[in-house]
Write a structure and sequence with these properties.
It is a single chain. By secondary structure, this protein is an alpha/beta fold. The chain has one domain: Glutaredoxin, CATH 3.40.30. It contains four helices and six strands, in the order ββαβαβαββα. It has a six-stranded mixed beta sheet. A hairpin with a 5-residue loop joins β5 and β6.
């Protein structure tokens, strides 16, 4: 089970496009935003992926963003579907498949898709939230990310 202010255990993910699978420690040194999403999730496609893209665009030098495609319904997506989604949604962040559809999803206690995890530069979990409602989940997440950068600028 994951806990706030504790190190996030490594994920169990697989490559989609043949790229090397990173570990959490590969992202140390700056905060990391993890999006657990599914191509079968309307909220992921309509709000979460665009939000993750915005985070990359606005914070590219200061924030890592990674996606984990999880499908707790057990439906497999083809490489062509992943490529089409990457192109159609102009995905600016690397994303990978969850092992066995939902291993990381379950390990990280995701409430569904999209689920967001924010870890600090040392790999400790700062925030975990389910959803993509613009006035709830995404607003809270956006404020939490700004809070991190505000603290860093005060150091």
């Amino acid at each position: 089970m994951i806990s706030i202010n504790q190190p996030l255990p490594n994920w169990s993910i697989e490559p989609i496009f043949g790229n090397e699978v990173p570990t959490i420690t590969d992202f140390s040194g700056k905060p990391t935003l993890i999006l657990i999403f599914s191509l079968g999730c309307p909220g992921c496609l309509g709000r979460a992926i665009p939000f993750a893209n915005r985070m990359v665009f606005e914070n590219e030098e200061n924030l890592n963003v990674i996606g984990i495609h999880s499908n707790f319904e057990g439906v497999d997506f083809t490489l062509e579907k992943f490529q089409k989604a990457k192109d159609d949604f102009f995905m600016r962040f690397d994303f990978f498949k969850d092992k066995n559809y939902d291993t990381t999803f379950l390990d990280y206690g995701a409430g569904g898709t999209p689920h967001w995890l924010l870890i600090d530069e040392n790999g400790n979990l700062i925030y975990s939230i389910f959803g993509s409602d613009p006035n709830n989940g995404l607003l809270r997440l956006d404020l939490k990310i700004k809070e991190i950068f505000q603290k860093e600028s005060q150091l």
